[in-house]
Automatic annotation (TrEMBL):
Taxonomic source organism: Salvia divinorum (Maria pastora)
Residue ranges of every copy of the Phytocyanin domain listed in the record: 22-124
Listed Pfam families: Cu_bind_like
Protein name: Mavicyanin-like
Residue ranges that the Swiss-Prot or TrEMBL entry lists as coiled coil: none
Signal peptide: 1-21
Length: 184
């Protein structure tokens, strides 16, 4: 009985750990490609909208290109001659294995200088969450009316927040099942 409970507890721990990592699709449907100038956002604007944690992964999808992991100095100079790591398989999954900054550039000539580069900041695991900023007060003339669809000042929750909430409930549910199994 004890070994079965231990096995279930171990399986539950693995499920919770797997649920806590997230795979980000770099630039979503656009993927890793040389900017044309018509994009809605740059790679770094995309990264700024996300919160990256240790064990999260970045999925780079590309054709006839490459992904180079470089130092901050090489990032700033678009220097592709001395990469820390290099990928050219068309579908690269890169694991963020430490807190701090990661620097990515394209290995194709001219692409980095055209904006195909990315900085990702991985949050420290013990870093407390920053207090959310309060929305500015709207002037009375621009306040939503009762005819609207409610308070439009609330931001939409990011996928990382949604994933954290789901992970919490999965862990609580698994703990409940294990507890019931051990005592019933």
């Amino acid at each position: 009985m004890a070994s079965t409970a231990a096995t279930i507890l171990l399986a539950a721990s693995v499920v919770v750990m797997a649920a806590s990592a997230y795979q980000f699709e770099v630039r979503d449907e656009i993927g890793w490609s040389k900017p044309t100038g018509k994009e809605r956002e740059t790679y770094n604007e995309w990264a700024a909208q996300n919160r990256f944690h240790i064990r999260d992964t970045l999925h780079f999808s590309y054709a006839k290109d490459s992904v180079l992991v470089v130092t901050s100095a090489d990032y700033l100079k678009c220097n592709a001659s001395n990469p820390i790591d290099e990928f050219d398989d068309g579908s690269t999954v890169y694991e963020l294995d430490r807190p701090g900054f990661f620097y990515f550039i394209s290995g194709q000539p001219g692409h980095c200088k055209s904006g195909q580069r990315l900085i990702v900041r991985v949050m420290h695991p013990l870093q407390p969450a920053a207090a959310p900023e309060l929305a500015p007060e709207l002037p009375p003339s621009s306040a939503p009316t009762s005819e609207g669809d409610g308070d439009s000042r609330w931001p939409e929750f990011s996928s990382t927040v949604k994933l954290s909430v789901v992970s919490y409930f999965v862990a609580a549910f698994v703990a409940l099942i294990v507890t019931l199994y051990m005592f019933v």
